[in-house]
Specification:
This protein has 300 residues and is mainly beta. Helix content is 8%, strand content 41%.
């Protein structure tokens, strides 16, 4: 795909691509193709993306490799970095474990004008990829047979126009589900003659049986990372949930929740039942005959 192939702007209204769910996890596969003087730089990244539209928080765990071909060839990786945005701040941990922070705004929208949020830290603030314009509705198309709405923008470099467009951004939204399918950004590196492209392919966002609340609250997924002053690590070990003996007069009834990571309610169980762990996030008062020895041993 070349920049000129993305040049036609057929709409003028501001783009809006709200995520179809408030809270979700998703995987985003990223491929970046960047030619330069006597070389070809290729990045491959896998991004674990968590979005919480209720608290306006996001997390990006980026696992990546980089390889350069031709003169000055090299390969490095795998490396990883992390970005957590919450409370108007973004905390970034680089591959050496160093923390930086900056003010940020989280929006529940796939059309944010730049692909930079899915790129490794070294590229996030690069002026080529950090360029952001307002996405507009451009029309309809298909991606792998899926009908999509297309949003994006085109831009030129002041005084250095090599083709009708020097920078471009596109987001493809599934018309049936309103879920992002693909995001593409093309630039001319340093507004030179070298066209580079980055592609981000989305998995289907998921929140299986409300799993998001189990993962976020007890795991502190959106807390300030440990490398940044003032807070604990975003993920930390929790002590096992205690299994109290049966208690006469207990307020809990049969099959009520009695434990699980992050649970702060009553942990007692009525006579004839036992607090049994079904998962790390849920323990229930079940009749003793129902107790699953395998699960109990696993989460004891």
């Amino acid at each position: 795909m070349v920049l000129s192939a993305l040049a036609a702007v057929v709409g003028a209204v501001n783009g809006t691509c709200p995520y179809p769910t408030t809270q979700f996890f998703a995987n985003v596969d990223v491929y970046l193709f960047g030619p330069g003087p006597g070389s070809l730089d290729i990045w491959n990244a896998s991004v674990y993306y968590a979005h919480d539209g209720t608290s306006m928080s996001e997390r990006y765990d980026v696992y990546y490799h980089d390889r350069a071909l031709s003169s000055g060839a090299f390969f490095y990786g795998p490396y990883s970095d992390m970005r957590v945005s919450a409370g108007g701040q973004t905390y970034t941990i680089d591959k050496e474990g160093n923390c930086t922070s900056a003010a940020s705004t989280v929006v529940s929208d796939a059309c944010v004008g730049s692909i930079a949020r899915f790129l490794p830290r070294q590229l996030v603030t690069n002026t080529d990829w950090a360029t952001s314009e307002t996405d507009a509705f451009l029309g309809h198309s298909t991606i792998d047979g899926v009908a999509v709405s297309v949003y994006g923008w085109n831009a030129t470099c002041d005084g250095t126009v090599h083709t009708p467009v020097d920078k471009t951004h596109r987001v493809y939204i599934d018309d049936a589900t309103n879920q992002p399918v693909l995001e593409v950004m093309g630039v001319r590196l340093g507004c030179s003659s070298y066209p580079a492209h980055a592609y981000a392919k989305f998995s289907t966002p998921e929140n299986i049986q409300g799993s998001f609340s189990y993962m976020v609250n007890p795991g502190h997924m959106f807390a300030k990372p440990a490398a940044c002053p003032g807070e604990d690590a975003p993920l930390k070990a929790f002590p096992p949930t205690p299994k109290p003996s049966a208690t006469a007069g207990c307020a809990n009834g049969m099959f009520d929740q009695c434990g699980g990571r992050g649970f702060d309610g009553s942990t007692c169980c009525p006579e004839g039942t036992v607090c049994t762990a079904h998962s790390v996030g849920l323990s229930q008062c079940v009749p003793k005959s129902f107790e699953d020895a395998t699960w109990s041993a696993l989460f004891a």
